[in-house]
Design a protein that fits this description.
single chain; 220 residues; SH3 type barrels; 2 domains; three-stranded antiparallel beta sheet
C-alpha cells in the first residue's frame, strides 16, 4: 500500500541547524561562535531585547507625532511680520500658492508615511505576540518600511529648499519651529524602530504556533 504524499511544509530555522547570522557582514556562523570570524562583530541568534526596544521606539515615535503636527514647523517672516505654520497649514499654503505637486509631496511624506510606518510597526510587533496573519505579508511590509526609511527625510529636504528659495528671493526670513524638531525625532525613532526589529522573530512565532498543532499550510 502506497503512503499518501505529505503536502505539509517542512522547514527549519538556522538555529535548528546550529547556525546563526552575523548582521554586520552577513556571514553564516556556527551557533557556538560568539564573535564573527570575518569581521569580529558579536553574533547573536536574535537581536537582544529586540521587541522591548522596538516597542519603546515605536511608542515614542507615536507620542512625538502629536506635537510634530500640532506645533509650528517653521515661521516665514516678511518685513518682521510672520505667522507660524504647522505641517497641515503649510500644505494648505502651498496649495494656495499653486505649488500643488510640492504640497502633495509634503503631505504624503510628512503625514501619511509616518502614520503608515507606525501602524505597520505596531502590526508587526503584535504579529510576533499573536501570529495569525500570513507570514509573507508581514515580511513584505517589513521590507516596505525599511525601503521607505530611505526617503524619510524627503520633506525635510523640501523645507530646506523652500527656505533657500525664500532667502534667495529676499522674501523674508525663515525660522524653524518646535514642530520641526519633533518631526525630525519621529523620523529618527521610526528608523531606529525598524532597525531594532528582528524579522526572524516572525519565523519563531510561526514555529511556536505550528508546534501547538496548527498545520503549516494555514500560513501562506
Amino acid at each position: 500500500m502506497n503512503a499518501e504524499p505529505d503536502n505539509g511544509r517542512h522547514w527549519c530555522s538556522g538555529s535548528d541547524a546550529g547556525l546563526k547570522l552575523c548582521l554586520s557582514c552577513h556571514k553564516v556562523c556556527p551557533v557556538q561562535v560568539s564573535n564573527c570570524p570575518r569581521c569580529s562583530a558579536v553574533v547573536h541568534q536574535r537581536q537582544p531585547n529586540s521587541l522591548v526596544r522596538c516597542w519603546a521606539l515605536t511608542l515614542t515615535a507615536a507620542l512625538l507625532y502629536i506635537p510634530a503636527n500640532l506645533l509650528p514647523m517653521m515661521t516665514v517672516s516678511k518685513f518682521e511680520e510672520g505667522q507660524p505654520q504647522t505641517i497641515i497649514s503649510g500644505v494648505i499654503e502651498l496649495v494656495q500658492q499653486g505649488m500643488i505637486p510640492i504640497a502633495l509631496l509634503v503631505f504624503i511624506a510628512s503625514v501619511m508615511v509616518p502614520i503608515l510606518k507606525l501602524l505597520v510597526m505596531v502590526w508587526l510587533l503584535l504579529s510576533v505576540h499573536f501570529p495569525r496573519a500570513a507570514l509573507h505579508r508581514q515580511l513584505m511590509l517589513y521590507r516596505m518600511i525599511v525601503w521607505i526609511g530611505r526617503w524619510s527625510m524627503l520633506d525635510i529636504f523640501i523645507i530646506s529648499l523652500l527656505v533657500g528659495l525664500v532667502k534667495f528671493g529676499q522674501l523674508g526670513t525663515v525660522t524653524a519651529g518646535a514642530g520641526a524638531y519633533a518631526f525630525a525625532s519621529v523620523v529618527v525613532t521610526t528608523m531606529l524602530a525598524a532597525i531594532q526589529f528582528d524579522p526572524r522573530l516572525l519565523w519563531d512565532a510561526l514555529r511556536a504556533e505550528s508546534d501547538t498543532g496548527k498545520p503549516l499550510e494555514d500560513y501562506p
